[in-house]
Amino acid sequence: MFESRFKAGELLAKRLKEKGYQGRGIVVLAIPRGGVSVGRVVADSLGAPLGVIVVRKIPAPKQPELALGAVGPGGEKVIDFNLLKRTGTTSEYLLGKIEDLKREIKEREKKFGLKRGPFGRLEGKTVILTDDGIATGA
């Protein structure tokens, strides 16, 4: 637990600098809302550009805090198939939830004024992803 998101960002930036993450080739992507506060501090400290990336958790049926995976920009998906099986989640539920989340991501990107690819291609760059917490590790 940290005193503030700002303090968490300072500590993260310090540790990243100690590991040599600074300067060209570094991009900080932040998950709204809390990750943007952390990301701003990290990006400023490392001399890196800051971008926002909207992702949404795919909640398990009847367990909305449990992440079956996530959906990101452009409909990119990460799914924990073992958890899917253990929870008995149907493909109909999963596909329907993914479509809902894709629409929600587009709405949020529009609300935040985001456009795809603010840094061009990310291949070959080091991407530091910031958020303000972690619930499941997914």
Descriptive overview:
The two termini are about 20 Å apart. A hairpin with a 2-residue loop joins strand 3 (about 55-60) and strand 4. The strands form 2 sheets. This protein has a 3-stranded parallel beta sheet, covered by helices on one side. The chain has a 3-stranded antiparallel beta sheet with strand order 3-4-5. The chain has helices spanning about 5-20, 35-45, 80-85, 90-110; strands at about 25-30, 50, 55-60, 65-70, 75-80, 125-130. Helix 1 packs parallel to helix 2 (about 35-45). The protein is about 40% helix and about 20% strand. The model has no long low-confidence stretch (mean pLDDT about 90).
Strand ordering within the main sheet: 2-1-6
Helical residue percent? 40-55%
> How many H/I helical runs?
4
Order of helices and strands: HEHEEEEHHE
Q: How many whole angstroms does the radius of gyration measure?
A: 16 Å
Query: Count the strands?
Result: 6
Poorly predicted runs of 5 or more residues: none
**Distance N to C terminus:** 19 Å
Report the sheet with the most strands, covering strand number, pairing sense and barrel closure: 3 strands, parallel
**Shape call:** globular
Beta-strand percentage range: 15-25%
**What is the mean predicted local confidence, pLDDT?**
88
The assigned structural class equals alpha/beta
